[in-house]
Amino acid sequence: MDDTQTKETMKQARNGAYGGIPRWVYAIAAAGGLLVLLPVAAMVAKVNWPQFIPLVTSESSMTALGLSLRTSAASTALCLVLGVPLALVLARGRFPGQGLLRSFVLLPLVLPPVVGGIALLYTFGRQGLLGRTLEVAGLQIAFSTTAVVLAQTFVALPFLVVSLEGALRTAGNRYEEVAATLGARPTTVLRRVTLPLVLPGLASGAVLSFARSLGEFGATLTFAGSLQGVTRTLPLEIYLQRETDADAAVALSLVLVAVAAAVVALAYRRPRSADISLAGRKSPTAAPASGGGVP
Amino acid sequence: MSSFRGKSRITAAAAAVALAGALTSCVPAAPAGNATPNSGPSGALTVFAASSLKATFTRLAAEFEARNPGTKVTLSFAGSSDLATQITQGAPADVFASADTRNMSRLADAGLLDGTARNFATNVLVIAVPPANPASVTSFADLARPGVKVVVCASQVPCGTAADAVEKAAGVTLSPVSEESSVTDVLGKVVSGEADAGLVYVTDVKGAGAKVKGIPFHESGEAVNTYPIAAVGPGRNNELAEAFIAMVAGADGSAILSEAGFGAP
Fold this sequence. Notes:
The structure holds 2 protein chains of 2 kinds. Chain A is mainly alpha-helical. Chain A contains 14 helices and no strands. Chain A is globular, with a radius of gyration of 22 Å. The model of chain A is unreliable at 271-295 (pLDDT under 50). Chain B is of the alpha/beta class. Chain B has 9 helices and 10 strands. Chain B has helices at residues 2-24, 54-67, 80-88, 101-109, 158-170, 183-191, 202-208, 238-249, 251-259, and strands at residues 43-50, 71-78, 95-97, 113-123, 125-129, 150-153, 178-180, 197-201, 213-215, 225-232. In chain B, helix 2 links the parallel strand 1 and strand 2.
């Protein structure tokens, strides 16, 4: 981080402009900021404050919030279990079709969630590719909380993989090489060197996955259905409340915004503080985990 | 140096103006039909209609355009509640056709209607099952059998309100596996075979063709959904709006609507 700052300062010195950034960039940046900020502010202004607490603490709201938090936690765990090996293989492995695998793993990032839901339906649904086999085995995924977790994991997995792969590439593999030459077995190297080294990236990836799971709507609606306490997560509850009770929808939206903002703030603070603690062991560009680009 | 600053300030202003222009151009302009009000019905008409009217209104709009050369009907389909909210927020609709009277009343109460609403069609619920009918559903009471996966609309939306009324009339308590927020989602779960049965409108089953089978039940008469239509807001293309409404509520409209399964008001 110091390195990039020095570079910036040098560049500024060359240009002779100490502000660093041309003023017009600030004007456009302000417009960009407003585009995001204004709608949120407008929503906050619409909140029926005297009724806020009763609206948010109603039985259906609390059930939906609880379900959202539980399923998001489960999806994040599943993302960690599946995503860490995927990121390792993509960052460190060498095998044919690696580029193709990466494209496929990243696909849910750009896919409309509804499409994801349809795809999941034809995989795990009763009439789906695996659904019939699962049903014979006594497992019914359709209309269950499992379906919600599956849908959330599907859309959230790329966030973890991208974060971690970026962190792995930035960290380099010199320490692993040293550990290996000292006689550590691959699993030991992974456990004692690689994972501690990319812990900040792993943490922010997990937090982002959690946030994405919390906001998942389209795939859940298409694939899991909507039943209070079973599959109706907070976004689905908001979508339904909007039909009859706009006040409740706005109040619940604010809750979701607050949770999401807290989660994002957490994700962007974590890496920095962790960088400092790692600074002694780790060298050059300790880029935040999301920065996949290698300088 | 100072001239440099000045220049960058101008660039900033230009960029801000360009951006503001780009943002405002995103706002849909009002229909351009207002310009020629005196030469019989002509110009552009924007019709907001409930999702269940998609097939019929698409046909009706084409028919209307063919009969009135120089007219252009733009259709927007969504849930009635969404459309009513959009109109309340200033969306440029000339005609609103709702799947229930509640959302039409919302606009009437807000003073957004031009004249009064006319009822032009009715719709009733029917049980939709996959063609093979895996759970052998034959009556409304069968839906309450344990193991039958039933999907209905949530009480907050019109089809859910109707389902509640039917349940009450039949004295049967359903325990659905999912309460969807739109009738399209209920139909989707039946078509895909995820659900054994769903409560949808008779027009949905007709529209789905061979993908689902409809099972009528006599309790459905307890919850007849009425579809009203009205011109929106004074000052828009009223003459054209009235002509379109007359066609929908008239003989041509009812022929196309009844073919799709709608009942007479």
